[in-house]
Each structure stands twice: as structure tokens, then as C-alpha cells.
What we know:
It contains 18 helices and 16 strands. The chain is of the alpha/beta class.
Amino acid sequence: MPNMSMKKNPMPSQEPFVRARNFDEVATGYDEATAIDEALRCLNCKNMPCVAGCPVNVHIPEFIAKIKEVDFEGAYQIISQSSSLPAVCGRVCPQETQCESRCVRGIKGESVGIGRLERFVADWHNAHSTELPVTEPSNGHKVAVVGAGPSGLTCAGDLAKKGYQVTVFEALHAAGGVLVYGIPEFRLPKSIVQKEVDHLIAMGVEIKTNMVIGKTLTVDELFEKGYEAVFIGSGAGLPNFMGIPGESYKGVYSANEFLTRSNLMKAYRENPITPIMKGGKVAVVGGGNVAMDAARTALRLGAEKVYIVYRRSMEELPARREEVEHAIEEGIDFKLLTNPVEIFGYENPDDKRDPKNGFVTGIQCIQMELGEPDERGRRRPVPVEGSEFLLEVDTVIMSIGTSPNPLIKMTTDGLEVNRRGGIIVEEFTGATTREGVFAGGDAVTGAATVISAMGAGKIAAKAIDEYISAKK
Length: 472
Ligand code: FAD
Ligand code: SF4
Ligand code: SF4
């Protein structure tokens, strides 16, 4: 009998006042009984609208049917035909705008909790499976992957499954890309990402860290070393700033730097190698998911007060609803229709190079109102004359977007980028304008999602295989 409840089974979570001061995962996941109960809400629709909403077309009704049969490993095997990181996607995919947005149960109530079920299945598999990864015999061909984020790791995994000898070159000292340096532990535990990386290594993928392509080695040098194709999955890690006065004061961070220091460099520990501003009052400028992560991280690092400063209203806030609700529950203060105009701080006259190099003391803001819609249909924020006010803070975190880093483009002949710095590729292959070089993920699209980066890695792996096979 289907479960005709209008509502999803709620996700068990830590209490807001407890979780706001620890880095443990906020959501604790369904147990078996709840997963089966939620699976029974699925109507196993013949035309499967939910599948079309998933960028990698996970066979959703089939895997949910296996949960109903209490065959959790069978459910995992079905998901893993399409997705190589289900434990990650079940946690961080924006399901409400992807698979779940197409679910027929969402017409008169809440959609089936597809992401929650995917997470349950992946966690069940990770807890119970003793199966070792299969290593394919080498086909004698070498491929280089630049960047160990979701696009690079997916491309590497798919090529290794076809017998390619794959080396991933990663600039940082750890593999995982944004999954380890950006998304905080309380949303995505690092151990889950590490498990996926270990799995790839066991499949024979070599991961070389501390290798900045464009500096340590160039793309041309990779070809000289015998790699027959190169996949660029270098992400979009270059932060944007507003260009307002005072951005060079101490205590002004980009969200990427703040999160990297906290996540990857473990700055939350006592006496960390990498320092970070802890405590005091913090303003995070921006309204996306990255801004929510930075604000909630600042709170967990001991801030007494954290503000989100966003120039439009709650309705236009681009972050996922779930993340906004979590942030509000934890006590983040939303200063909406507010835009910073200047950052104030102590002057440091001893610093000849830049006297505006003391510590932040506050952020001058102006109140905004919404005017006429812009070219994308969003109402344009307009400053309200004479409404300036000072927000006293000790730290400012800029979270107003990122762009692809130009380093690889600057050091690779024939590689063309668009005006936003994204590498230009053919849609169905990921082939760039330079022969033998493929690209995908945020390096192409600009900041997007984990699942779209994985999808791009898959497309490129298939195209690289066809490219090398055609040369044989
Ligand atoms: P990345 O994950 O950025 O990986 C690129 C890798 O390449 C990095 O490890 C980088 O160090 C390396 N690299 C860069 N340049 C070089 C070089 N020259 N040589 C060698 N290596 C290099 N998406 C979601 O779907 N859900 C979320 O909840 C979500 N939350 C996010 C939170 C934060 C804080 C951020 C920053 C992003 C979030 N995203 C989220 C977006 C998502 O993480 C990205 O779209 C995705 O990680 C892109 O994958 P990628 O492989 O293209 O690049
Ligand atoms: Fe939904 Fe993401 Fe899973 Fe696809 S991968 S089914 S979009 S949760
Ligand atoms: Fe199940 Fe919803 Fe997909 Fe229908 S649309 S098969 S109810 S998940």
C-alpha cells in the first residue's frame, strides 16, 4: 500500500542551539524504517518525471522500489549506474530545483524525499559493504586530469573503469575540491569524500597533490610526458570583491579563503597552523549557499553575532531554502535590502605600503529598495538616499561569487575562454579549442553544482575514450 501522507518524513537533525556550536553533521539521516516509509510515498510513475529533473538521470523509481523491497544494496547498485558520489549528492544536491521539483507527489503536497533516500542508501552501503573496487587491466593509454574536484574525480573514475592509466594533478594538499575546502563538515563530513577518493585510488587512479598546473607543470609538459589527453576540472575558485574602500583591512576575507582556512586547514582547532578571526561580530556579504556556509561556520568558530548582509529581499535570496531556514534557526541575523558601501578599520601608519591595513571596526551600509526588473527579471536594488548606517563588526566575509582562475588559460596555447573566463567547450563532448584537451565543471560554467560538475566529468570521460580510440 502506498503511503499517501502529504508530507515527507522529516529529516532527524541536531537541535539548533546545540549544533550552532559544533561542527558535527546537522542532519543525522533516516533509519531503515523511516526510509521504507518514505519510499512507500513513491507512486512508481510510468513516465518518471523525476528522472528528467536529475542532471545525471539517476533511475529514481527503480532504486526507490528496491528500498520498498528492503534490498538496500540493490538500490545502491542502481544509483551507482548513474552517479559516482551518491553519499555526497544525497546531502548537497539542490533536490528541490532538480529531481524533487518534477515529482508528482509535489503537486498536492511535498515531493518524495528523493535526496534523503539517496543519502540513506549510500550511507547503508558504506556501512555494510566489504566489496573491493575492481581494477581493470591497463589499456596502455595515459590521461591527465587537472583538479581533484567532483568533475575531475568523476572523469578519472570513469576512465579508470575503461583501463586508462589516470593521474590527477591537484593544486591543494588534499583531493576533493570544493567538497573538502568549501562545503563545511556540518553539511558534508570529510570522511565521506575521503572514502570516495580512497575508492578511486584502489581502482588504480594516481593522485598527485601540491601540483599547480600552469606553474609546477604546464598542459604542454603533460603531453610531453606521454599523456594522450588532458581533462581540465580546475573549478571556479577565484573570489570576486566589491571594489569598495577598506577591503584590504585585516579581518576582511573572501568566503573561499575563510572556508578553506576553517575546513581544510582546521583553523577551528586550538593553536592551528593557519590562523583565522574567531569570535566577535561578523558580517557576511552575499545571499547564496556559500554565504550561508560562511555565516554558519563563523558562528561555530565562536562569533557572538553573525549578520548576513544582502541587497535584495528574502524572496530573491538565492541560497537553498533549507540552508536559510537552518541559518535562521541557529540565530544568524539577516540584514536584508542592505548594501555595504565602505569598510572601516584602524589605520596602521607604520605600514608604508598600505596604511589601510589595520583591523576592521565596522561596515558602512546603505538601505536599498527594489526598483524595476533587470534583464533577468529580478527587481533591481536601488539605494535609499540618506539611509546610511554603521554595522559594528570585527570581521567581514565577502561572498559575492567566484570566477575560473585564468592561470591555465594563460599558460596553454589555443585554449579559448568566454568573457567570464569559462573555458569554451563543445556541449556534448567537453572538447576545448585545443586538440586533446577537454574540460568540464565550474571551470567551464562558472560556479554551479556538484552534480552538474560530475555530469560534465562523465561526458568528457566518454569523449576522451572515443578520441584516444580513434587515434589507435
Ligand atoms: P572544484 O570542486 O572547484 O574542484 C576544482 C579543483 O581543481 C580544486 O581542488 C582546485 O584546488 C583544483 N585546481 C584549481 N586550479 C588548479 C590548477 N591550476 N592545477 C591543479 N589543480 C587545480 N554545489 C551543490 O551542488 N550543493 C551545495 O550545497 C554546494 N555548496 C557549495 C558551498 C561552497 C562553499 C562552495 C564554494 C560551492 C558549493 N557548491 C555546491 C558548488 C559545487 O561545490 C561546485 O559547483 C563543484 O564543486 C564544482 O566542481 P569542479 O570539479 O568543477 O570544481
Ligand atoms: Fe536528485 Fe541529485 Fe540524486 Fe539526481 S543525483 S536524483 S538530482 S539527489
Ligand atoms: Fe516516485 Fe515522484 Fe518519481 Fe513518481 S515522480 S516515480 S512519485 S519519485
